Amino acid sequence: MSLVIKTKINDDENSITYSLSGELDINTADSLKESILSQHKTVKKLIFDFTNVNFVDSTGLGVLVNIKKQLIDVEVSVVNQKDHILKLFRITGLSRYF
C-alpha cells in the first residue's frame, strides 16, 4: 500500500496540516520525512491528520518521533487516529508526546 500526503497551509499561515491516507510503514516513512522536513520552513505548528491512515508500524512511529526531535521549535501533533492506531500510540507512550 502507499501513503498519500495532502498539504494544507492553515488560515493563520503559522501551521500546516498534513492529511495522510494509506499506510505509514517501512515502505512510506522516508517519503513522509523528506516531505515534511523540506516544507516546514517558517511554521510554528505541524498537524498530522490520521483520519484516513489504516496502518502504522514501528518505522512510521519512529519517523514521527524523528520529525518532532528535528523540529525543536515546532509544535507537532497527530489527530483523528482510528481506535487501533490510538491504542498503539497509548501502548508506546507516544500519546503523551503528540
Structurally, the number of domains stands at 1
In percent, how much strand structure appears in the residues? 25-35%
- The chain-level mean pLDDT equals 93
Number of strands: 4
Major β-sheet annotation: 4 strands, mixed
Q: What's the architecture, going by CATH?
A: 2-Layer Sandwich
- Overall 3D shape: globular
Structural class of the helices, strands and pairings?
alpha/beta
The strands making up the biggest β-sheet line up spatially as 1-2-3-4
Would you identify the regions where 5 or more consecutive residues have pLDDT less than 50?
Answer: none
Superfamily (CATH H level) name: STAS domain
> What is the H-and-E element order?
EEHEHEH
Helix proportion: 25-40%
Task: Describe this protein with a few key phrases.
Transcription Regulator spoIIAA; 98 residues; alpha/beta; 3 helices; single chain
Structure description:
By secondary structure, the chain is of the alpha/beta class. The chain has a single domain, classed as STAS domain (Transcription Regulator spoIIAA, 2-Layer Sandwich), CATH 3.30.750. Helices cover 35% and strands 35% of the residues. The chain is built from three helices and four strands. A four-stranded mixed beta sheet has the order 1-2-3-4, with helices on one face.
Structure described in brief:
This protein is α/β, with parallel strands linked by helices and 98 residues long. It has helices at residues 29-39, 58-70, 83-92; strands spanning 3-9, 15-24, 45-56, 75-79.
